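User: structure tokens for this one?
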Amino acid sequence: MKPGVRKLVVNADDFGFTRDVNQGIIEAHRKGILTATTLMAAGAFDPEAFDDAVRLARETPTLDIGCHLVLVGGDPFPRTVTQLVRAVALRRIAIYSELRSQVRRILDAGIRPTHLDTHKHTHLLPPVLDAVARISQEFKIPWVRRPFDFPFTAEGVSSTKRAVTKAMTLVRGRSTRVLAAYGCRSTDHFAGFQITGRYDAVSLVALLRALPVGSTELMTHPGILGSSLRSAPTRLKESREQELRALTSPEVRACLDECGIQLCGYRDL
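Assistant:
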């Protein structure tokens, strides 16, 4: 990468969660700045959402597709991350085989993933990270998310969210070492954890203006608030439409042009 260049991968989590989330993700790509998404092969609320997402992926070859690996959120998985930690400690969950089967389902659907991440960032847990890194190497899916926000003071972020962000950095060193040991690649920077569920076009422009030199992944959660999403067990409902509006706003596109930020997918890095 040339000195001073800023490249941005805009990734949507939860592709395959519900069909109205799928619709919002595709709209954010076709009409906005979204360049990539990660597909859930398990944990979907809408039983038809996975097949719908696969169909949309085939119809949208310009969108990078990755795997959104799921170990938490409800049956058959622990409902919360705390419950997952307990299950892992008691060896009640076969992490590697479960995640491998999810990747296998996506491959069997004819999709070649370019990147990996996890629902609720569960690969911050050492046993989950080890399994994800092994899967990255085994299936030759080179890019793995490192979910540590670059230093940026966003307005309105709760003290709890800030504390969690700070706590996450405690495992940053081990995460970097494990991914390197397995030959995994990550963007230079990451953004989106602190602002998830609470940003609009104005705050997104502020974040983009602060983007550091190098490559950055921006995590997003766009969607359409339809009947399925309204019924789904997620706190991100109305905020998904707000994120969709931000990702498709002329102000955000103009900011990218003004700042010389290059949009790209993982295939382009």
